[in-house]
Amino acid sequence: MLFENQERFRLMKLLIALTVLTGVGGVVHADDFAHVLPKLATAPAEMAAWLSGCEVLVTPRGEVRRPCKLTLGDLVADTKGVTLTPTHVKEVAFPRSTLTWHEADVEARVGAKVVATFHVIEVGASGNPDGPNGGWGVVAQSWTRIASDKDVASMAKAGKLVAPKIADYTQPAPKGLDPQAAGDRDAALTTLRDAWKGTDDLKEVLGGMLDDGGVLVGSAAERLTGKGGGKTVRKWPLGLRPQGGVAVGGNALVQWGVTTVMGTVGGVTIPYVTFVVNIQRMTGGGSFAPSIALVSFGVPQ
Questions:
Q1: At 124, is the secondary structure helix, strand, or coil?
Q2: How far apart are CA 227 and CA 225, in angstroms?
């Protein structure tokens, strides 16, 4: 009986935390996200303020930055006259969860000409809607440059793709976590790291995530989910082998990971910077368990 009461109390605290994290006014958060993205070119201080408190940012070159910093020069070599235009901005719900993430494509333009397009994924937490950034606090942000499979294969054959060196790293836990939440976080981070180090081919890991309602975003911004997506991934004619370290962090309910995955097909090897989001979600038995919910592949450029 004592155990049941302790478990019930733990679940109650997690549900309260979910309510605090999700907050209200999700559309406002998406609007704020769309508003701040162009500011990287026109008012970088506003972008820096948006990223205050962020734990990790992944650049299009695959650099893992702690604390989070990004400049227009990280996106394009020649920044003269460049503006940024966000498209397809949305707030997306994690599978079987009330938690959400932000997502957008961002076009870098000189006049009317699009010189590059990027895909941005941002995970965070909601609090007081009257607070800064509409109450949204960024936890992690990932930028990838969108490229067609044909162009990526051509760059790989020409030796123009270099796998970034990502070291094992664990972000310190947020201040104020109670022992139970800290234990949940540690267990989730261990699960996340082990999933990306314990196999020579990740297709089955990805297929299982998709079967369970997760989302996979490819380097050409293609999107897979559901059992159909799981079947597609398992049939991919390439090996997917993790390489190097895994950087992880997050809070008790949402965790992030960054690592390198090497894709091999037809004698060509392509490095992918892989951004992984893990969430705690309720199981059918009424308890919480860590689950990979979102994976994004980007080719370092």
A1: strand
A2: 7
Sorted by sequence, the CB contacts under 8 Å of residue 9 that are 6+ apart come out as none
Beta bridge partners of 206: none
Between the alpha carbon of residue 226 and those of residues 51, 95, 98, 190, 211, the distances in Å are 32, 10, 18, 25, 5
For CA atoms 195, 181, 284, 211, the dihedral sign is negative
Contact 204, 300 (CB under 8 A): no
Question: What global pTM score does this model have?
Answer: 0.87
Which strands, in side-by-side order, build the sheet including 254-265? 169-170, 239-250, 254-265, 268-282, 288-298, 215-217, 223-225
Single-letter amino acid, residue 165: K
Q: What is the DSSP letter of 94?
A: P
Return the SS3 of 29.
Answer: helix
Query: Per-residue pLDDT tens for 169-193?
Result: 999 988 888 888 888 899 889 988 9
| Cβ atoms within 10 Å of 159's Cβ, excluding its own | 7
User: Nearest Cα to 297, choosing from 218, 234, 243?
Assistant: 218
The dihedral built from the CA positions of residue 90, 287, 283 and 54, taken in this order, carries a sign that is: positive
